[in-house]
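Quick one:
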Amino acid sequence: MNSFKKEKAILMFENGTFCEGFYEGKLIESGGEAIFNTAMNGYQELITDPSYNGQIVVMTYPMIGNYGINESDFESNRVWISGLVTKNYVNNFSHHGAVKSLAGFINSYGYPVISGVDTRHITISLRDGGQSNVYIAPKEAGMNYIKKKLDSLPKMEGLNLVSNVSSKKVYENKVDFPEFKVTVIDYGVKSNTIRCLNDIKADVTVVPHNFSKKEILDTEPDGILLSNGPGDPKTMAKEVETLKSLLGEKPVFGICLGHQLLSIALGFNTYKLKFGHHGINQPVKNLKTGKVEITSQNHGFCVDFSGNASKNYLKDTKLSHINLNDDTVEGIKNESLKAFSVQYHPESSPGPRDSRYLFSEFKELCLR
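Output:
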């Protein structure tokens, strides 16, 4: 327990309802789209995943913070979430590798952590009522002030966030005795994606999201990986046009937002899910093998595979994976273009490693 008195916080939703909790650490205001995450651990990887940019994360697992923050489990070099909501927050962390508290780390980037909230009630509300923007502020700020701040927040649908998270310059991660080269288009890439590519003997070059076809091909890749990232894929028309021009040039592997952008480039549509998939226990069926993979996921948009794609690509693009909870699209493949993608995170971190084989399949395509 903290030795000082905790200040009361209000978490307000678009419909005017609110929850009362307590600040852990600094009294910081923040707003964003509320999403619930069902993972029981891996909060350090979660809060440093660029895909969470613009989101207030509600953890369904009650005890959060108990193992603190260490020096190794980062997915980027900073915090990207807009705030963290917990039931029971543990300030006195205990782990041999911990160097700082979770709240202290998040606060250092200007975002709040609150506790004492019935997070499972919020989860049910979001599942029943759908996604909602929320705003966190001290109770003493007043309800009218908090509602005004909340009403000023933009909707996630129609929001382009990739420019916030993408690298502004090219960088490389090389290996000893490389067997092939991969260029990653950075829409918000996680560090473990690069590590997974290095593990299969790939030299990796990471380029900004707005690189042209020529600039991408000038890196001389054997394959191109489209990374995860935040925001609405429909706002990324320029990136989609670049992808269209690259199709057929090199093998392409898309992850999460990269999957959505590849699907749009192939002529399909995307739509906003009611409450999204956020956790590390989502069951996905591989339609080719019949095997079920337990996957790590974080997305609020989904691909519509109902047959509205352009005639040129429709006959060659196949559904490869589906979500067994709601039958949504989890993967597509176009053999003729050597292009495939998945909605979930095969690099995991956090999460199970059932889907790591996809990196090996990408390598096989690159070496053909």
